[in-house]
Automatic annotation (TrEMBL):
Membrane topology note: Multi-pass membrane protein
Family the entry assigns: Belongs to the EMC4 family.
PANTHER family according to UniProt: ER MEMBRANE PROTEIN COMPLEX SUBUNIT 4
The entry's keywords: Endoplasmic reticulum, Membrane, Transmembrane, Transmembrane helix
This protein's name: ER membrane protein complex subunit 4
GO cellular component: endoplasmic reticulum membrane
Region forming the signal peptide: none
Chain ranges passing through the membrane: 86-105, 125-144
Keyword hit for Endoplasmic reticulum: yes
Length: 173
């Protein structure tokens, strides 16, 4: 009879041969028995470590604070591509812009939670102010976009009922 070698019997137990060869430790691995906890050369002193952590927290706070400024060019481009007409896509893009700004402003404490210590308190406060200013800048762009769409009432005829709406002459260049 011919043996079927094209399948494996998964119900039969697999005989595992014990490995007698010991593998080398990975590069940089220190055996726990050879590690000396009293060695001062391998440990970082608490003051240096805390100052490094404070510096890292400040750097992270500034990275978060400048994040909206980095997103603003892509936001402007997306809104430019959506157009200024009163259609569903430009209106949705503008509403999304406003909801993102308002949720970011309301969640400032949550965003910067855990980054503030006694030593970097002023630096994190400036980062929070910068974050809020970047959000206000995005909000100003959203208001400008609404004005270009004609949604903001800023003409005299928008407020007075008997005022005639100005008619614009369309010209083809």
């Amino acid at each position: 009879m011919m043996s079927n070698n094209w399948f494996e019997n998964l119900t039969a137990p697999v005989a595992q041969s014990p490995s007698t060869k010991k593998l080398e430790a990975p590069f940089g691995y220190i055996e726990p028995s050879t590690y000396n906890k009293k060695s001062s050369s391998t440990q970082i002193k608490p003051s240096k470590q805390s100052s490094k952590v404070d510096d890292l927290k400040s750097a992270k706070a500034w990275e978060i604070a400048t994040g909206p400024a980095k997103q603003l060019p892509s936001t402007i481009f997306m809104n430019y591509m959506s157009g200024n007409s009163l259609q569903i896509i430009p209106i949705t893009m503008t509403i999304t812009l406003f909801t993102g700004v308002f949720s970011a402003i309301s969640g400032v404490k949550k965003v910067f939670h855990g980054l503030e210590t006694e030593k970097n308190k002023d630096n994190v406060y400036l980062a929070k102010v910068t974050f809020l200013l970047m959000q206000v800048l995005t909000l100003a762009y959203g208001i400008w976009k609404l004005n270009n769409m004609g949604v903001i009432p800023n003409k005299r005829s928008d407020w007075i009922a008997w005022e005639v709406t100005p008619s614009y002459v369309e010209r083809l260049l």
